[in-house]
Amino acid sequence: MAKPNLIQLKEAVSRIKQACERSSPDQQSPFFFMVGAGISYPSVPLARDIVESCKEKARGYDRTEEPKEKNSIGVYSHWFQTAYAEPDQRQEYLRGIIEGKPITHANFRLAHLLLNNTISNLVMTTNFDDFLSRALTLFGKSHVVCDHPQTVGRINHAKPMVQIVHLHGSYSFYDCCNLRGELKTRADHAEDTTSTMASLLDLILWNRSPLVLGYSGWDGDVFMQALKRRLARPLGTNIYWFCHRRSVVESLPEQVRYHANVWFVVPSKEHTAPPDPARGTDIAESLLPSERSAENLSVKKDDESVLTAQAVLDKLILDFKVESPELTLDPLGFFARSLLDALPQSESTDAGPDIYTLKNTIERVTRAKQKEDQERTETRIKPATSKLERVRDALRRADYREAVKQATQIETAGLSTKDMEELVDAMWSSANGLGDGSHEELAAYDLIVLVGTKLSSLTSDNFVMSQKVAQAFNNKAFRLDALKQGDEAVALYNEVIDRYGESSNALLQEQVARALYNQAIIFATNNQHETAIARYRQVVERYREIAEPSLRAQVAMALVNLGFTLRGIDRDEEALAIFDDVILSYGDATDTALRLQVAKALLNKGLVFRKTNRNEDALEAYSEVDRLFRDVQDLSLQVQVGRALVIKGVVLAGLGRPEEAVEVNSEIVRRYGEASQLSFKEYVAMALVNKGVALETLNSEEEAIAAYTQVVQRYHQASEPTLQRQVGNAYNGLGFVSILLAKKYRLEGNETSAARELELANKSITAALKIDPAEPLRLGNQGYIAFLSGQKDEALKLLTQAIQLGGEKVREGELKDADRNRLPEDDEFCELVKSIKRQA
């Protein structure tokens, strides 16, 4: 089975560095950067946020028709055009979300890498913003920009000058491409000219390979089309595709995903985004297991590993030992030289006019520079300040460990208030840049607490600095808990509660709420349920009446987890009352964080109802999730809707309503069948398996086979264990249908067809067992096949193994299966099954 090439960041950067070793400085780089929206977020919203904004705008004009295409580009194109039908309107919308926004850290880091052509001089981008160009200008680096097919003649990638190509255009003009048709046009070659983005990409891809960053790959856009053309032939240098999440890999076309020269750099626990101290409500998301249908919805961690664009660029800067930009090393000297270079030579002397008095400006900057140099010479710059400069330099070079090391050597008594504030900010940057739970990250938090506490004591209203201290405590506690040091984490959370628990400042109240909440999670995880319940109640009692959005969300999260904890110790009615409280209090909220908690409360209500055999009430709860949130574009809410529909299908099947189960599962496939996110792929796979099971009970064998076959066709090459599990379930379903058909043919006296079906059944079950060799239901089916094939000793061996692994449920299932299309020999089979003794 083909698998994508996966690699970690450290190894990828090492390979890239080796590939960039050139025999001469003039030799062309083997790489170019291909960057997408990920390097411009959060200054510019992502596609999903734009969709939600456009959807809201369209509804204001009563334009509510849903898109016919459910894939990402189809949904995006539909809602953008529905909200802004005119090209000028679309340009103004883009201008509004881009113009004047701050340059992101990732764009600054990329500009830093481009200054000396360290890795490449060329950037291709699907972004409309000018952040990279602005960053290069600030660093004093001249560059060429191409943002339209008619300007491709500006690009000569063999020349060392920095060059930026906006593949879809820029926001300044409405020749930018957003809609599906526009993207297709930009991707096409033209018969009457070679001045097309497609032709330019074909030329560059022939000799260079992309380093893909912040881009998820919209199939059909100009880059993906050109890349697929290029991958038809072998590459001289590998492509390295940096994935924000592991699921990006599975969303790409097979031609890209399985190519030998494409390597996907995926997140690891060592390179994750900085943790949010409020750890989501994953504790309240587990679900009751099902027997034969596929409802194994794994707990979703809100702190799932990600690989940020800045983390990638930081690693490249660090390993390539890129020097700090001149602007940051000697700002006054840099500006003086820049002004001097910009002044016409005839005006740089006394002869000739100086209409902007630039000579005077240069002299003033020069005098300031001379004064700074004199202060250094006279040692008026204190040693502590000198060490702070080493921290600054390490930060510029993305050497966060060195920054922390240098910071720990600073005597804070030698720092001014301003310098101490800078040190705190530097340690935040270092901790966020590390994000790995290392000794250095924890040391950075300690410094924030030490220096921040001192600064807080200097003024009575320094709530911002106190908030940073509280958050440092929370972040360190979060990391310690992840390192299985729960007692130390609880102690740090207590420090936040003790210091700031009586504060009326919203910034500090949020940190106290997070400390209480995260403490509760630790206690609940360690089965200290009563203590956990008390902590959740404290969050609710302290902050319920406060209107601050972040605190409202924290209270709602605490309530949901409180209900879940109560359910876990069989206080079901209390749990239902809590979930109803959430729904009543926040059911009309428009804030996504609150709506998410309403969805989770409804799902957990369904869980309690199922536990207490109130299945009709459970169905109503799951239907309510769908009713409230089916049209909401937000990914986190759609995940809850999909989850509700999957469980609804399971409940319907369990109630003996297979027709309705088939309908619900078909709806899941219709809605999410083209989605690229792993959660939705899991839902689709489970829905198809469950649909097959329901169709079996309706004696619709051919339709059941079609459903199971879809799972195998869609996901047989998937590497995720959750999808492979469903492929195994589908193979098992195919095998079971073949068993039923074999028995049917045997009853009719058609032994040839029966033998054929038993052979097919054996192949399917064997394929299922390759995925999970110890799965008891599959072993039981293989045992039944052996029995029907006359291999009774082998049948006994397999059935014994299945019952030992799966217990009485497997025995009961085998006896029940024997009743389907019952044969005379099934009496002997049932006696064999009953005779098997379970080992103690």
Q: Could you characterize what this model shows?
A:
The chain is built from 37 helices and eight strands. The chain has 840 residues and is mainly alpha-helical. Strands 1-8-7-6-2-3-5-4 form an eight-stranded parallel sheet. About 4% of the residues have low confidence.
Radius of gyration: 31 Å
Q: Give the N-to-C terminal Cα separation.
A: 39 Å
Query: What share of the residues lie within helices?
Result: 55-70%
Average predicted local confidence, pLDDT: 87
Structural class: mainly alpha
Coarse morphology:
globular
Total DSSP helices = 37
Q: What is the topology, as strand order, of the major beta sheet? A: 1-8-7-6-2-3-5-4
Task: Provide the descriptors you would attach to this structure in a database record.
single chain; 840 residues; eight-stranded parallel beta sheet
Outline:
The protein is mostly helical and 840 residues long.
Task: Indicate the topology.
Blueprint: E1 5-7, H1 9-19, E2 31-35, H2 47-60, H3 72-83, H4 87-98, H5 105-114, E3 122-125, H6 131-138, E4 143-146, E5 162-166, H7 180-187, H8 197-207, E6 209-213, H9 222-230, E7 239-242, H10 247-250, H11 254-257, E8 262-265, H12 309-319, H13 326-329, H14 331-342, H15 358-377, H16 383-396, H17 400-407, H18 417-434, H19 439-458, H20 463-482, H21 486-500, H22 506-525, H23 529-543, H24 549-568, H25 572-586, H26 592-611, H27 615-629, H28 635-654, H29 658-672, H30 678-697, H31 701-715, H32 721-747, H33 751-771, H34 776-788, H35 792-806, H36 808-818, H37 826-835
Parallel strand pairs: 1-8, 2-3, 2-6, 3-5, 4-5, 6-7, 7-8
